[in-house]
Sequence to fold (889 residues):
Amino acid sequence: MSAAEAGLAAPPDEAGIAAAIAEAAARREPLSVSGNGTKTGMLRPVQAARSLSVRNLTGITLHAPKELVVSARAGTTMAELEEVVASGGQHLIAEPPDLTALLGTSPAAQTVGGVVASNLSGPRRVAWGAMRDHVLGVRAVNGTGETIRSGGRVLKNVTGLDLCKLLTGSHGTLGVLTEITMKVLPKPETTGSLALAGLDAAAGVAALAAALGSPFGVSAAAWLPAGGAARVPALAALGGPVALIRIEDFAASVAYRLGRLRDDLGGHGAAVLLDDDASRAAWRAVRDAEPLEAAPGDAVWRVSVRPSAGPGVLAALAPHGVAGFLDWGGGLAWLAGPADTTTHEAVCAAARQAGGVWMLLRAPEALRAAVAVVPPEAAPLAAITRRVKVAFDPHGILNPGRFYAGV
Amino acid sequence: MIRQPAPKPDVLARRAEIVAGLAALLPPTGTIADAERLRPYETDGLSSHRQVPLAVVLPETTEQVAAVLRFCHEHGVRVIPRGAGTSLSGGALPMQDAVVIGMMRMNRILSIDYADRAAVVQPGVTNIGITAAVQERGFFYAPDPSSQLACMIGGNVGMNSGGAHCLKYGVTANNLLGLKVVTIEGEIIDIGGAHLDAAGYDWLGLLTGSEGQLGIVTEVTVRILRSPEGARAMLAAFRSNEIAGACVDAIIGSGIIPVALEFMDRPAIHACEAFAHAGYPLDAEAMLIIEVEGSTAEQDWLLDRIKEICGRFDPISLRVSASAEESLAIWKGRKGAFGAVGRISPDYLCMDGTIPTSQLPYVLRRIGEMSDSYGLKVANIFHAGDGNLHPLIMFDANDPDSFHRAEAFGADILTLCVEVGGCLTGEHGVGVEKRDLMGVQFNAAELDQQRRIKTAFDPDWLLNPSKVFPLPPDAPSVAEAA
Fold:
């Protein structure tokens, strides 16, 4: 056991997680909660002498393809979950990214619990919803060691408060997820993409808006600057910035819809069609933020704004040495730049100016401890946040300070 | 009969003072206190329960809502938010000592942004009103509850309403971007905006479906979507519920997710046909309405595949709509199902459980047995793709025994839904109707966890307080006259 692992508990089951939390609650001892630890470099660092991991809670507990549901214990790797879902001819709707390489925190495989706890969604989010939209049920242990279920295994459920959504994206601060049930959908027969070359950010996002506002069921829409496109093998040959638009469906529909989009958007730039393989490769790269040019010491942010405001965010931040690309039709800016307070403040200001939000995804610990890693909440909401935190975790032992100092 | 918390004697005693205080915060016609004009607010879509409130206020701005809530908070007055009053679970049922806040005067569409595919609307805009405002540009708002002509978006947010097309497009929670909410303390909070996803906690997800217990919504930012090129429906009729259920599995298993996949049993088919004359097959035990979207060629291709799949299940009849008009006629029967049942029975209760779809044949068989033992007829309508079951239990409200049997029958059905792995309510909400069944689905620790969240938003439990959570056994209460 390494020194770093000395304070780590990784019980084999939910009862062990509950016992560990109850014990920590009795001792008023904070816990750093994780799965395989691939996302501990996101947000604020947690100050805790002890760690609790769900990595040993593994396995698929329900797989009913005809009912469009799958359940897995929180420590199951995403790779295993995706493989099982694919064996039923289906896929995860939110297309969660694998940011292991970008975050560089741990080379281990990300877990289902980690992806849900951070509500990570990929390119399909713009059309088909986020992880939180497809989490049907959770089991979680709150800060006193009680096991709480919310939701269930059915697709439509409004019984009681929706703790599935609240816990999804809560980064282990309200409860420790032990098992998650998700909706899945049939994997499309094929995919294809339309690449419009040579458009700057504003013109590119206008093309994406036209595509997303078309009747053709676009399932992803991103704009990559020349440097970003060059990092994606399927797009590098186009030699310039690219607006990329995806259709996923039965083969006949993909061909028809891409054709219509090419005709309708032809005026927006030189159009190239990507076949299934090229399309999958390109979107996998976009999903995992590979077009982002982040130097090893750079900070990385995700800024979410109304799609038409995305180009303005890029323009506002260029003078600060911050650059990136746009997914979600322009609404998600992936950004990299100098890891210092001044630059972070510039990113916050650009997000605020656009009426959106930011998340500091990667930075040295000192910076993450010093700045607002997500937007501070207005006073009345911040008061509710503190009370809800207490409602789950009265002793403040679960990942304290992960979002906000003192919460 | 349900238990209701005992009215607060001090609030009842200070009624005149409270009404005067509220009137001072609102425009001249914004306060209702005389018995005759309070009467329309005594009930909602669950008309078996009635209670005239202390007063009704009709605010016109967020600031007026904030002033009213601040006042009620200061004076310990309970508050019942109300939209169009279409809740089937009694979500807007008043209490004797409570002020109803009617949101219907806040009925403006504030902005529409086609480039960013979002609209900002006030809570009193009807569900269909949003689509009506954007359809000339080819857009629509996706969730489509059966009550969409009347129900308001504020109520949709409160109940996280669904609809027949949510198999593809999701329910209300999946189609929202932001909310403006007033807390019981009168604080105005902005959640989300025109962008996707929160950076911190998902308050939008928690508030949606919180049944007016955490705050009052005064603005809603919804996602609007571009309509597909077209849509067309088909009918498939089968010899048994089991066969129709297997056909649903086969369609989903083929990789096709129809935009809607509705199931009706024999009594529902007969009731709807008598009402809508849609040409439903009266010799069938079960019928599916299946709708697909896309260009005409895409519709043809999808419907051909679905027809081929249905053909493997020995159908009694298959009918593909040849036109948009014929599709509308097919839907007319289904969308009018509640009215249709109302024609053959003086009264009915509409249940709303969800079940794993594989359990459908078993659940329908058990409902049939219960129907025999309770001596009450039932028609079943089922969102087959997502497992949301609507048994319509027919009874006679003039016969108290019939009503009590209907309530017990409904409770048995919902308990069965939970037993087979489902839940008490898929889209109507808990309200008062299913409040006392919550212990069937949740254990004490889980209910207490939810109650603590309610308390975090509303420490004195003034917001829609007698709904969703079973009353504490020792709470002072009264039996409400049904």
Q: What stands out?
A: The mean pLDDT of chain B is 95. Residues 400-419 of chain B form the longest helix (20 residues).
